[in-house]
């Protein structure tokens, strides 16, 4: 039974804008799933419908087999939502925010207090439990949103741009928290504009554009569709003015000590090392470029609409 099953979902707003044009997707229980797409693609509308904040025009949604249209209250008890915008009272204490939120869902106060301590400790906010929330940093506020959503012990956690506006160190700390939540059994759906984030965290993904799913499947399978891969080489010494020409590859110096190389996936990397060696260039270390998902994303959303429809079908 899928954690989330969406079938032929359509949404047309009163101004006749079609935000969703027959979207269908399944998210398996326990998955860490990425929903990607440019601004205006339909991500927010899809999340709004699943979380019962937006009414659908056609189609169906079920959460762990619970139909959203006929069993709305039961379905909502299975979901935790972390919206992009901060939407808690900045003049409340974190522990009160969590306990009061749990109370809205019928969690007894004694249980809520115990859960609040657990979630604030996991979010590394226990020492801030009794401070005014407005005094928290941006990253702390984001972690507080996740802690609040977990107070009802949701089976499906939906995160809409959870790391927007936080620096990379805080973002990576939040990744650790989300991995722990997922490893404990909670299914997670993530929307993000940080494609590195999706590639690091998620096992499956769907790309939505112009209200349609243009591609979906396992992360590794979709990344394998790319016929090129990129590497960064750290070089001993200074690069020569004239770089070697290696047939079938693109070699660019990003600075005096770093080479950026793109090559066909089927090409033997030993050819590259041999050519660099003949040119007197010694490679100290290498690493894979982390923009593979970004390249796939750009390719998918730049397909003609007819091709997108065929791919989605």
From TrEMBL:
One of its GO terms (molecular function) is ATP hydrolysis activity. The keyword Methyltransferase does not apply. Residues 4-235 form the ABC transporter domain. It holds the Pfam family ABC_tran. Keywords: ATP-binding, Nucleotide-binding, Transport. The keyword Nucleotide-binding applies. PANTHER family: ABC TRANSPORTER ATP-BINDING PROTEIN, ABC-TYPE MULTIDRUG TRANSPORT SYSTEM, ATPASE COMPONENT. This is ABC transporter family protein.
